[in-house]
């Protein structure tokens, strides 16, 4: 058991995690009860801690959790115990202790994991599965049908479902022959090989025979069904191979990528997918010193096979969505519907949890898949042996998808080592250097990805990432479980300089007469000047924001002063009643207090004007900026300047956002600066409803949390 002080220290070392949740505790709200539910349910975690009486201070450079005053700790204990006993289908008994830390009283609440026979617990006023919660990372996620498999011993799975509208004619007989061939190579005396085709499919759980009616199961249609039958019954059952130029998803809807969609029985299609991708990947040869035979370099084919087999075998077929294989110039991303039933911390450990047992059985019996639970470990060993970056995996419960990411270049090759030499004076460790290489190629990294790259625990990953922030090499985005890191401005300059240098070397031979060294120097100077201008604008906006914060604090202080003055007036009034002889003096005191109030009111007015001026200054700066090389049109400037002069302000802002995004794709931060509204308010009140209604759309529709996400209006 941890003490409250130890929990607070852990929070400030690596933030909230799967077994620690921090709350202010001013009241027992819904979010606290959801955490109680998730700690009670999460399999194999053993429970978790809720620390009440702390709050994160976002005003510091490195936000830290600090104790706050709990006005009535006893009442908070009673409320929590009462709600735990009454709100769930079975009572939960939390272990609650009060401890004093740094002069403040904190409530340490420990929630034990329930026995399997008692799971899942859920809110009585909601039905399963939505009323139950699981602990995913540092978040509490509402359960889905897939989660119920963890709590109940189901005899039926989705892939065992019977498809009554199918017949034996829907079977692709070549895929049945392929299964027989693969199975015989593993075990030529397997009993099912002696059966006819119908008997074979029934024995594999891929078909069902009742009297004279023969029909396929979901597994049978996926593994052995003809493409025409799959399109008729499961129209989104396909695999998309997408080739994207460059390292990022391009917003151009016409030329952003090329696409190959693949359909058909999975036993045959998986070979087509592997061959299609493998033939498209970069390959090279290396002759080690002292050897006479060259070795082939590049992504090992077995790693590619394991990644694709894992995606086909574990994806959710309930979700009507294709499996995507996205090929960037520097990496391969395999995105399949359905989050992992294993936590990110358990990926690569022995043992397998599958939502498609009949499909998985066919893969294992034909040796298409590794021994249960060993595929990811095999991939990591092969990538390490090939001196390539380890594969990284991201399981997104809320988006219900799983992503495998494979970098295609040697992790610490000559080019990478040359680039890393810029940081020699910082004394970075090997894991931090690997993270910078990954960040350079992918553009973002988070704590789970760092742990997979470095093979370390959460504490070590948080410590290393904090040092990279202190060196101003990375910039933090998001909070809590949504925290991720992008290259800082200084690191981006180093990346750009490296790209310019490599492009210069590559192009000097092909177009020597077109570009002189002087031209390249001028281009580099121009890029530096533009970057400097952007940095100055960013500093100006930051200074204005800080000034606004200071003024807000001044207003708070003045408000406190007004409260004190009001109390003083009350005391004076009591004094007048008790002692009439001091009436004159008290009246004079009241007059002085009234003057003080007048002065304070004047100060508040001046502060309000100051804030308005700063807000106008930010808007003016935003109006004068260029957006992708374009100035804000005068008619839009006029509309922005008319903000606050309309009766129906909400409709006016809605139409103004639509006009701005019709002119130019804009980020949330750019809209916030142009309209002088906070990003959170702007997104919740306008942008999100406009996305839902179809008035706006993402420029990166497949990655809503893309670091450079922006919005554009939909033409009507």
From TrEMBL:
Keywords: ATP-binding, Helicase, Hydrolase, Nucleotide-binding
InterPro entries with a match to the protein in the record: RecG_C_sf, Schlafen_AlbA_2_dom, Schlafen_AlbA_2_dom_sf
Ranges where the Schlafen AlbA-2 domain occurs: 17-143
Highest taxon of source: Bacteria
MF GO annotations: helicase activity
The keyword Nucleotide-binding belongs to this UniProt entry's keyword annotation: yes
Keyword hit for Hydrolase: yes
Coiled coil: none
Name this protein carries in UniProt: ATP-dependent DNA helicase RecG
């Amino acid at each position: 058991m941890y003490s409250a002080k130890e929990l607070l220290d852990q929070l400030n070392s690596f933030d909230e995690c799967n077994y620690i949740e921090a709350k202010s505790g001013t009241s027992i709200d819904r979010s606290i009860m959801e955490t109680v539910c998730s700690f009670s349910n999460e399999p194999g975690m053993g429970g978790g801690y809720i620390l009440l009486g702390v709050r994160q201070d976002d005003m510091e450079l490195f936000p830290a959790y600090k104790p706050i005053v709990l006005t009535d700790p006893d009442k908070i204990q009673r409320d929590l115990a009462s709600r735990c006993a009454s709100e769930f289908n079975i009572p939960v008994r939390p272990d609650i202790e009060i401890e004093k830390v740094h002069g403040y009283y904190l409530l340490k609440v420990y929630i034990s994991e329930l026995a399997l026979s008692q799971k899942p617990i859920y809110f009585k006023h909601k039905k399963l599965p939505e009323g139950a919660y699981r602990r995913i990372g540092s978040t509490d996620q509402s359960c889905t049908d897939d989660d119920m498999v963890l709590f109940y011993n189901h005899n039926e799975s989705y892939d065992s479902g019977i498809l009554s509208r199918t017949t034996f004619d829907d079977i692709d007989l070549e895929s049945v022959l392929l299964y027989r061939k693969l199975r015989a190579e593993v075990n030529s005396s397997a009993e099912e090989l002696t059966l006819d085709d119908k008997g074979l499919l029934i024995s594999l759980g891929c078909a069902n025979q009742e009297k004279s009616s023969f029909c396929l199961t979901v597994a049978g249609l996926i593994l052995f069904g003809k493409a025409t039958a799959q399109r008729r019954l499961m129209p989104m059952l396909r695999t998309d191979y997408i080739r994207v130029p460059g390292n990022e998803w391009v917003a151009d809807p016409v030329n952003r990528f090329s696409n190959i969609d693949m359909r058909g029985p999975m036993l045959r299609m998986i070979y087509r997918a592997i061959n299609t991708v493998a033939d498209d990947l970069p390959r090279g040869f290396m002759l080690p010193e002292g050897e006479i035979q060259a070795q082939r370099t590049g992504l090992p084919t077995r790693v590619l096979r394991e990644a694709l087999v894992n995606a086909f075998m574990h994806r959710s077929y309930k979700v009507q969505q294709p499996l995507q294989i996205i090929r960037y110039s520097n990496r391969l991303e395999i995105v399949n519907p359905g989050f992992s039933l294993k936590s990110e911390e358990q990926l690569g450990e022995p043992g397998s949890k599958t939502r498609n047992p009949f499909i998985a059985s066919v893969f294992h019996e034909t040796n298409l898949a590794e021994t249960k639970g060993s595929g990811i470990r095999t991939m990591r060993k092969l990538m390490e042996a090939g001196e390539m970056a380890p594969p990284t995996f991201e399981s997104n419960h809320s988006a219900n998808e799983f992503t495998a990411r494979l970098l295609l270049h040697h992790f610490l090759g000559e080019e990478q080592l040359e680039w890393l030499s810029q940081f020699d004076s910082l004394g970075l460790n090997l894991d931090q250097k690997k993270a910078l290489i990954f960040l350079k190629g992918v553009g973002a990294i988070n704590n789970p990805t760092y742990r997979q790259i470095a093979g370390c625990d959460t504490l070590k990953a948080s410590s290393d990432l904090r040092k990279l922030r202190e060196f101003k090499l990375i910039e933090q985005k998001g909070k809590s479980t949504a925290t991720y890191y992008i290259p800082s401005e200084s690191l981006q300059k180093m990346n750009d300089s490296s790209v310019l240098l490599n492009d210069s070397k590559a192009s000097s031979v092909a177009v020597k007469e077109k570009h002189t060294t002087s031209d390249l120097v001028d281009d580099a100077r121009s890029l530096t000047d533009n970057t400097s201008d952007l940095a100055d604008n960013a500093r100006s906006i930051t200074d204005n924001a800080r000034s606004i914060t200071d003024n807000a604090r001044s207003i708070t202080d003045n408000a406190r002063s007004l409260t004190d003055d009001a109390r003083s007036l009350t005391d004076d009034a009591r004094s007048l009643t008790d002692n009439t002889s001091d009436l004159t003096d008290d009246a004079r005191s009241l007059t002085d207090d009234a003057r003080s109030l007048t002065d304070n009111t004047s100060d508040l007015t001046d502060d309000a004007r100051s804030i308005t001026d700063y807000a106008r200054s930010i808007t003016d700066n935003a109006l004068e900026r260029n957006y992708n090389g374009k100035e804000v049109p005068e008619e839009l400037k006029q509309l922005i300047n008319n903000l606050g002069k309309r009766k129906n302000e909400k409709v006016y802002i809605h139409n103004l956002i639509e006009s701005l995004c019709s002119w130019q794709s804009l980020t949330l931060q750019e809209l916030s600066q142009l309209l002088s509204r906070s990003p959170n308010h702007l997104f919740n009140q306008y942008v999100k409803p406009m996305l839902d209604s179809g008035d706006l759309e993402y420029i990166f529709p497949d990655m809503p949390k893309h670091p450079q996400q922006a919005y554009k209006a939909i033409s009507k």
